[in-house]
């Protein structure tokens, strides 16, 4: 279908859906595209997994046993997970889509969807992941809001942009996860971000603006 992503040895895509047939179809499709899918049939197992592995993208069904997709979105927002989230649902009214986006979803896709459409959306989400991991905003040396942030806050923001969880960021920076959480809250307040996904959008929009100016 698409070119294998040989330039990225491991691109983890997490699939959270209670329907085995949907999981199996997505696994097959994403493996063909060169991604490394991992499946979860409920929100609890998924939330456990993201404590130790930062996915490049999350495909999240809204209707799950136990905690709903919206519950998961709220939990991810509280955890400040920066991975792009694609919400999928058989109920695709405008109000549901808007609510999902407010809670940090990058995109919303109605079931059933075509192979081409889900691959297109995953590629777009992984592109965001690759940009921030590739160092495009690493260090944030030219980020317009840098004067608002302390040195430690800029370090934490760099980890957030790379998709690190509080635990991962704390380990890398030598501070506790709770301290990371405090810094993240201050960063989001200073930069006016509603959630982690919004924070990435703000930073990436500035990076894109710089690229457009340099190209003109």
Task: Explain what the structure shows.
By secondary structure, this protein is an alpha/beta fold. The protein has nine helices and five strands; from the N terminus they run βαβαβαβαβααααα. A five-stranded parallel beta sheet has the order 2-1-3-4-5, sandwiched between helices. It is globular and about 45 Å long. The N terminus is likely disordered.
Radius of gyration: 17 Å
User: Tell me about the biggest sheet?
Assistant: 5 strands, parallel
Low-pLDDT parts are 1-8, 208-213
CATH topology descriptor of the largest domain: Rossmann fold
Mean pLDDT: 79
* CATH architecture classification name of the largest domain: 3-Layer(aba) Sandwich
Span from first to last CA? 34 Å
CATH superfamily membership of the largest domain: Response regulator
Number of strands: 5
Beta fraction: 5-15%
Element layout with pairings:
Elements: E1 12-16, H1 20-32, E2 36-40, H2 43-49, E3 57-61, H3 69-79, E4 85-89, H4 94-102, E5 107-110, H5 115-133, H6 151-161, H7 166-173, H8 177-191, H9 196-215
Helix pairs in contact: 6-7, 6-8, 7-8
Feature tags:
2 domains; 52% helix; 216 residues; Rossmann fold; alpha/beta
Summary?
The chain is an alpha/beta fold and 216 residues long.
């Amino acid at each position: 279908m698409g070119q294998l992503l040989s330039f990225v040895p491991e691109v983890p895509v997490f699939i959270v859906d209670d329907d085995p047939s949907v999981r199996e179809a997505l696994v097959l499709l994403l493996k063909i595209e060169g991604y490394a899918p991992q499946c979860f049939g409920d929100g609890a197992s998924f939330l456990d997994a993201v404590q130790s592995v930062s996915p490049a993208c999350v495909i999240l069904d809204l209707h799950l046993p136990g905690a709903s997709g919206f519950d998961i979105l709220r939990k991810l927002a509280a955890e400040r997970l920066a991975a792009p989230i694609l919400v999928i649902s058989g109920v695709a009214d405008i109000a549901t889509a808007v609510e999902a986006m407010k809670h940090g979803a990058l995109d919303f896709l109605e079931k059933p969807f075509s192979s081409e459409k889900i691959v297109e959306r995953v590629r777009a989400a992984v592109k965001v992941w690759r940009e921030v991991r590739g160092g495009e905003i690493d260090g944030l040396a030219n980020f317009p809001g840098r004067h608002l942030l302390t040195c430690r806050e800029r370090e934490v923001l760099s980890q957030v942009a790379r998709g690190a969880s509080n635990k991962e960021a704390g380990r890398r920076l030598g501070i506790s996860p709770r301290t990371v959480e405090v810094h993240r809250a201050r960063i989001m307040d200073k930069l006016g971000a509603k959630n982690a996904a919004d924070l990435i959008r703000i930073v990436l929009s500035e990076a894109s603006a710089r690229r457009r100016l340099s190209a003109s």
